Amino acid sequence: MTHRRFCSALALILALTGLAGCASVPESSPVQVLREVSDGEGGTLPAGPVEGSNPLDLVRDFVFASGSSAAEHGLARRFLAPDAVEWDDAASLTILDGQFDTVPAAGAQDPNSGVTTIRIRGTAVGRLSSSGAFEPEQATFQQDVTVVRRNGQWRISNVPAGVVVPLSIFRDNYRQVRTWFVDPVRRLAVADLRYVPSVPARAQPARALELLLAGPSEALLDAAVSQLPPGAQLRSNAAVGSDGALIVDLTGVGDLDEPARQLLAAQVVLTLSEVNVARVRLLVDGEPLLSGTPELTREDVAALSAEVQPGADVPGVVVAGGRVRQLDGPQPSAPLPGPVGNGAYDVESAATTGDGQRLAAVVRMGGRRALLVGGGAGGAVSPVSLDAATMTRPSWTPTGGEVWTVLDGAVVARVLVDGTGPARTGQVNADQLTALGPIRDLRLSRDGMRVVAVVGGALYTAAVARSIDGEVAIRNIHRLRPDDLGEVVAADWRSAESIVAITRGTDMLVGQVSVDGLSVQQVLGNNLTPPLTAIAAAANRPLLVTDQTGVWSFAGGDQAAWRQVLGGAPDAVPLYPG
């Protein structure tokens, strides 16, 4: 495959389907939404120029036709004049929010002359990289296209390099694929979002393998690694065997011990499961990668997924009136036993580890804040050596060995709790994040590879990079959907690929955003009284938000409105484990 064809194959994206997406490890339940934001025009791609089409409609149809990457955007090329300047369709791909205009450009020639300039005008939500990863950047977009009349018909004679396509067309024609890489510390598989054309389906396994061989995207650079070294490649094209299993034969992978082989198997099999490959015969230089296991399924490697969702029997907590209560299902129960629940401390926020065995609490002490760490469910807690005027609500790593909080909006602190001695404090290099403004909220993802942060009223995601010597840094920062979300108050992870945020706006009180910023959805807002102040989310659990009257719960499905679970508590802060 040439570089041009490879870029073209990766240059478009999937039909977004809300929270329910491709198969997940583990799976996440959908949240009912009111509407998809910027859900523009969709439908069937135009087959070609319409006889007698005017320049404005011609360019509009050209943009829609660009949704098909087949034959180097052969469908869109039907709109070009025979003598048109060569169009470099592999240079870049810009994604519009779906609502765009085609208007005469300033100073356009008189159409009666047979030449005119048409401007494509809209809002870009970002670009697709050459590796098939979406890079968010919401901004005003405009591009001029030259149109000429040939044999009585208008055709495009010159179009700038790159492809411009509305999101609605992507949603109809392309799919999201999670490629899987490795958390170098925990040695588990982590997901990295990419996008490939959905047609032809038979080409998707090969494209998914190309993405995997290319390594992590920029979003996870320096955070995730791969068991496939730069020189690794396929010995032959992936092919379906007589028994229906996909044969993948690799070479150049180097010497791998058994744990590394298991991780490599997880990377390949989990990635291929995203494109509906049920069984994989994974070989290295013609021999099975895992001796004794000639064929692998998703279930064989699912345990190596890094994302840890709290078990159904591990409750969340809610802090109200200075006391910590356990969440019994979506309902708050009596305050926890011990000092965090009996009023000995004035608790502001709290969170337990994913297994519920440890608890961290931010407490008010005069005009200052302190962090307490100890056993969960009301066990003994001890202060750690942190002191600040403000602290964000605690957030735990998947192992429960670290808890993070932000001091005075400027210092990201982590507390190491390994059970071998007193808790130790450390710092995260967050210079790139704090340079953007004060951090009001920060949550670790449940696979430990990213953070979502509210900084200066904007929503950001970033990677968590850990070095061999133990240093931790926040890298690869991206701002998500500023025009749609407006001023953000707080956010939480619904899954490793999905974030839920509350805002100060009236149009979208609660919004759900994909981790790469490609999609944004408005969650039903019935019954909520703004402003909202806190939110909690986890897979397969109801969303929880705090408004001016208390805590409300929304589970989606047939539920038509939010239900109040704790009244008279406008200061409440709910949090699910993690």
From TrEMBL:
Q: Name one Pfam family in it.
A: LpqB_N
Stretch forming the signal peptide: 1-22
- Keywords of the record: Signal
Cite the SUPFAM superfamilies for this sequence: DPP6 N-terminal domain-like
Decide whether keyword Ribosomal protein is in the record.
no
Recorded superkingdom = Bacteria
Q: Where is the GerMN domain?
A: 205-293
Membrane-crossing ranges are: none
* Name the record gives this protein: LpqB family beta-propeller domain-containing protein
Protein species of origin: Pseudonocardia yunnanensis
